[in-house]
Amino acid sequence: MTEQTGRASERSKSSQASLEKARNWYIDDFVRYITVERNLAKRTVIEYHDDLTIFLKYFQPLFEDGLTLEAIDINTISDFLADLKLNHNYEASSLNRKIACLKSYFSFLELYGYIPDSPMDKFKSVKEGRVLPKVLSQDDVSRILAYAHSQSDPGGDWKAYRNTAILELFYATGMRLAELTSLNLSDLNFDDYSIRITGKGNKQRIVFMNQSSIDAIKAYLEARPNTKDSAIFLNRFYSRLSRRAVEILFDKLKEEAGVFKNASPHTMRHSFATHLLEGGADLVTIKELLGHASLSTTQVYTNLSRVTMRGVYDKSHPRQLANL
Fold first, then answer.
1. Are 95 and 81 a contacting pair, CB within 8 Å?
2. 11 an active-site residue?
3. Distance between CA atoms of residues 260 and 56, nearest Å
4. Which of the 8 DSSP states describes residue 37?
5. 38-86: per-residue pLDDT in tens?
6. Contacts of 305 (CB under 8 A, 6+ apart)
């Protein structure tokens, strides 16, 4: 072997070692950190892990050329995000999740002394246009619920009772899809018509159920197969129902009820908030029921209540009253 060949071989080994290190650069440690110390939700942990995989894959050629984690700066990260936007059509909301992930990741590296400073400290989120949530009308919701109830025959399929209870609970509480599928029997309190929900960041809140949802849940629990699983909502194998299964059953029942609007289980959450606002509920109460961290998040629903606002306007403005 010549000296030149030997040096090339050493460079290749060094690059491979650098790449192998990059592929494993404290990812497991970071996942443990956000799971245990920051107590992030399981779904967020999975999403952050996926985001970091995309990040490291993008930098793989640079790692092979000798780039170190310490050398990554705000410019290289900007190039990464620009690539996602221009070449992969990422929306602002998706880019902001990547930014949030990288902020957390580099803060972790700095905290534990793996890098001297985080390049994300002064990095700002991408400005997002506010998109109003889709909402079903009260008539649409009533039609879907009525159809679900019509499928729950005494002595019939227990899953029909389950589906009815799911829809009633969505509309009664405004809970998120992930919150519903994570519910356990111990979360129910029939004494005061309440239910304990574990939301984002494992934060718990108490919300209330109406008589319709209470009746639907009791009917379902009577029909529910006996099982040791603590989950409230079961699949056909008598284990916890998945989020995807709920999305499928919601779409099926919605269309069978004759509601062909583009809607999902999360639309029921938006409908819950909007209909409460139209009924006179205040934003602070709605914020607490939804589990929002900030009132500004809840305020988007004020833009949805156009029917109510028009009615108030027509009844209040003196010039409008003069024309009635």
1. yes
2. no
3. 42
4. I
5. 998 888 999 999 999 899 888 877 777 777 788 888 888 888 888 888 8
6. 274, 277, 278
Nearest C-alpha neighbor of 297 from the set 147, 48, 151, 130: 130
- What tokens does 269 get? 């959450």
The answer to whether the beta carbons of residues 274 and 299 sit under 8 Å apart is: no
Domains, the chain:
3-111 (no CATH), 138-313 (1.10.443.10)
> Model's pTM, two decimal places?
0.63
Q: How many angstroms separate the CA atoms of 240 and 181, rounded? A: 7
Q: Rounded CA gap, 47 and 37, in Å?
A: 17
Q: Which helix (DSSP H) or strand (DSSP E) does residue 34 occupy? A: none
State the catalytic residue, choosing from 149, 159, 269, 270: 269
Q: Confirm whether 200 is a catalytic residue.
A: yes
What is the DSSP annotation of 193-213? Answer: TEEEEE-GGG-EEEEE--HHH
Whole-number Å distance between alpha carbons of 152 and 244:
22
Catalytic residue among 26, 105, 171, 301: 301
Q: Which of 134, 200, 205, 243 is catalytic?
A: 200
Is the torsion defined by CA of 118, 121, 126, 129 positive or negative? positive
Q: What is the mean pLDDT of the chain?
A: 85
Cα 251–Cα 201–Cα 283 angle in degrees, nearest 5: 70
